[in-house]
Amino acid sequence: MSDIEPADDLAGVPDGFERLWTPHRMAYIGGQDKPTDGEAGLGCPFCRAPTRTDEDALIVARGELAFVVLNLYPYNSGHLMVCPYRHVADYTDLTEAEVAEVAALTRTAMGVLREVSSPHGFNLGMNQGDVAGAGIAHHLHQHVVPRWGGDSNFLPIVGRSRALPELLGDTRARLAAAWPTAPKG
């Protein structure tokens, strides 16, 4: 018999399973801040982020042609994205200088994450197009996901949730402080 009183049961009939609630994920599932079209500008979160303060936008570092920002819906703690400032969808449309800076910022991001969080490995990648899994397909972004042995457990498989041990603002502050050059903002 459950020790939950019927009046306390706001989430349905008790069935012996514990629930891990992650209501913040509904913003992602519902498409909050996702652009409705491919237009650049304030409708695109990657175009909008550089117009805000680093702390507010969760920007870790700024380069001349690209910037590094924490993912609002991370796979793991420290999940960064490297984005060109220019609103461009396809990797082949980047200039040589943009390719070089995205690559350099990705390498630096890996080094900073190693220093700050000691991951055992990384997933790096770009999802090109909606069918390839790009959440925001019209503005290219390179994912830098730190990985640790055993970081995938029952939560994402059964609970369809991630447990992140640190607030995004705290993660941003630690990574920005360890970045080799002082971030602007």
Short recap of the structure:
With 185 residues, the chain is of the alpha+beta class.
CA-CA gap between termini: 56 Å
Kindly provide the radius of gyration, computed on alpha-carbon positions and rounded to a whole number of angstroms: 19 Å
The topology string of helices and strands comes to HHHEEEHEEHH
Arithmetic mean of pLDDT: 81
Residue stretches low in confidence (pLDDT < 50, at least 5 long) are: 4-9
Please outline the helices and strands:
Elements: H1 25-29, H2 45-48, H3 54-57, E1 59-62, E2 66-70, E3 80-84, H4 96-117, E4 121-125, E5 142-147, H5 154-159, H6 168-178
Antiparallel strand pairs: 1-2, 2-3, 3-5, 4-5
Question: How would you characterize this protein structure?
Answer:
With 185 residues, the chain is α+β, with helices and mostly antiparallel strands. It has one domain (6-178): HIT-like (HIT family, subunit A). It has helices spanning 25-29, 45-48, 54-57, 96-117, 154-159, 168-178, and strands at residues 59-62, 66-70, 80-84, 121-125, 142-147. Strands 1-2-3-5-4 form a 5-stranded antiparallel β-sheet. A hairpin with a 3-residue loop joins strand 1 (59-62) and strand 2 (66-70). The radius of gyration is 19 Å and the shape is globular. The model is unreliable at 4-9 (pLDDT under 50).
